[in-house]
Amino acid sequence: MRDLLGRFLAHTEGLLFLVILLLGGLLAVFSPYFLTLSNLVDLIESYSVTTVLALGVFVVLVAGGIDISFAATASVAQYVTAYVATAWGIPAPPCILLGLLVGLALGCLNGALIYYLRVTSIIITIATMSVYFALLMWLTGGKSIYGLPDWWSTRVVLYQTEAANGDLIRITLPILVAVLAALLTWLLMTRASAGRQLTAMGGNPEAARRLGVNIAAMHFLAYGYLGILAGLAGLLQAHRVGEAVPNAMVGNELNVLAAAVLGGASLTGGIGNVDGVLLGVLLLAMLQNGLNLLGVSPYFFQIVIGLVILVSTSITGLSARARRRDRRPPLAA
Q1: Angle at alpha carbon of residue 102, lines to 85 and 132, rounded to 5°
Q2: Which residue has the higher pLDDT, 251 or 5?
Q3: How many CB atoms lie within 10 A of CB 302?
Q4: Dist CA 111 CA 219 (whole Å)
Q5: Cα–Cα distance measured from residue 249 to residue 49, given in angstroms and rounded to the nearest whole number
Q6: Mean pLDDT of the chain
Q7: SS (H, E, C) 214-244
Q8: Could you tell me if 25 and 286 are in contact, meaning their C-beta atoms sit under 8 angstroms apart?
């Protein structure tokens, strides 16, 4: 039993699950409402957009890159789709496809710039984030689009029941979309050859190239996939709030990145899985929700986000240093 527990806790997912249980128990003591089923379901829905984005960021991290522009990509895809839907009255299927294609195009542009210019991914995506968002604000004047068509703004409830205390429990469309995005990402990274090639490229790009992995294609796949999920997240955000706001998605980049690295995705690539990302999102969601219920300042949550990224970066650096030291040949006697 002790060996089984040790193996369980040796993995990031096991540690995260234990922390989630402890945090849930602690918050339930201070706020009886926290562990109610209605609150937990609402919590999952409110973090559905973050989940979709974190899954895309996870794929890029495993491939050995970092993308900071996904929120700006989501904003552009959302606004372009909203403009077409409201100004021209285009029906749902073409509009949804347009949003996804806009995200794909901006994501592939990131991949092309990173691969062909041979510039660090974080530098390129910081630059494209600034360009995407600034262009959006300049061309739109920062004006929101209200009056989205009914097919987009109407709340879709897939299942509804009433708890014993009278609270309504609803399984809505954003929850379903997040689940499907998680399933698709899991299939890509564990069941598809492309997922294994992405992992190989993230672990050792030169070795992957020698094994025949098309590095250019993997760049387009990783950043294009994140672009598609960013476009989907933008559409989902507009569905939840009933309007398209140019700057609504920008500013949450660190929250999404923290969820991915908290779930075990290495900042140096080649490591991570979907289970860990979902647990990372759940832990951050529980923490933020619990702090809100307790009336703690939201700035404390941002402190936690900063510490998560700092600790993850430190662990990554120390691990890389240890690996280099282990590969160093012994000194001759």
Answers
A1: 105
A2: 251
A3: 13
A4: 5
A5: 10
A6: 88
A7: CHHHHHHHHHHHHHHHHHHHHHHHHHHHCCE
A8: no
Q: What is the pLDDT of residues 113-140, one digit of tens each?
A: 999 999 999 999 999 999 999 999 999 9
Q: Which two tokens stand for residue 125?
A: 């995506």
* C-alpha to C-alpha distance for 100 and 98, rounded to whole angstroms: 5
Residue 333: per-residue pLDDT: 44
Is 318 exposed, middle or buried, given 0-12, 13-18 or 19+ CB atoms closer than 10 A?
A: exposed
At 325 the pLDDT is: 62
Fill in the amino acid letter for 205: P
Q: Which of 283, 287, 262, 282 is nearest to 273 (CA)?
A: 262
CA distance 6 to 62: 26
The predicted model scores a pTM of 0.91
Position 250 confidence tier, pLDDT thresholds 50, 70, 90: confident
C-alpha R_g of the chain? 21
Q: What's the Cα-to-Cα distance from 113 to each of 117, 129, 131, 268, rounded to whole Å?
A: 6, 13, 14, 19
Residue 268 has what DSSP assignment? T
The tens digit of pLDDT for each residue in 224-243 reads: 999 999 999 999 999 999 99
C-alpha distances (whole Å) from 103 to each of 74, 94, 99, 134, 183 are: 7, 14, 6, 16, 20
